[in-house]
Design a protein that fits this description.
It is a single chain. The protein is 68% helix and 5% strand. By secondary structure, it is mostly helical. The protein has one domain. The protein is globular, with a radius of gyration of 24 Å. The model is unreliable at 11-18 (pLDDT under 50).
Amino acid sequence: MATADAPTVPAAPHLAVPGSYEQVTKLARYQLREYLRSLRFIVLLGIVAIIGAIITTIVGYYHTTAAAGLVSNTLAFYGSLWGGGVNAVVVLSAVFFGGDAIAGEFQNKTGYFLMGLPVRRTTVYLGKYIAAFLASCAMLALFLAILVGNGAAYFGVRLFPWQLGASVLLALVYLGSVLGATFLFSSLFKTSLYGFVLTLIMFLFGFSVLQGLIVGLVNIEPWMVISYASTTMQSVFASPVNWGLTASVGHTMINGLSVGPRVYTAGVAEGVVIMVGYLLVTALAGLGLFEREEFA
């Protein structure tokens, strides 16, 4: 007896899992979009704008008297305002965008659902890092635009020293290293507040105090402290510039006499090596902690 052919069941469509690069790109875009729409972005944007407005007002009002030295030449202007202020912008940006990048996954329980997807933790970590870096760059760009606008008013639109470009590049490297440490602190805790507070305290006060203790008590170069390398963002405006891998050593002089411990200033190449070293060590350590944490 002949039997009818069994109906053919169409095969389910094969859904390819995106590659690691595509996953990182998508996660970074999503996280960056979340940052740009968040209240923290608006708040930090306002803080940087207020800082820029204060600088513009003070220099504009006192440029003929107390602040006359700042507008005497471009190196003095950008060395004081950009070189002296960019460190605070970098640290605040890293705290706002990286302080809860990893800890928030535990605190908000979002990591429990995210880890159920076919995505590696390395991909999540890298995507969040890229998003935090780009969001922080937006703050640096705003701060730079404010100072460049002021500089154009005093020196003309064509008088931008090459040292400013070098300092901007150094600021980007420093931002990368600060974010690496921020992600490490964020990976240490499961509460966002701890990551915020620890990063803020360490980079605004802790490392500077540690650097002072090392120089004051042991009288050696504090190359192991990240705040020491950050001084290259301002020292690049000096003349002559120390581009080497060794520090410049001087003394505090009072009435022609040297007082206190030696004063160390990191060379530009030395500062870059220190910052990159911090970035690699802290970012990998933070990733290692993130890989070992259990979501419940």
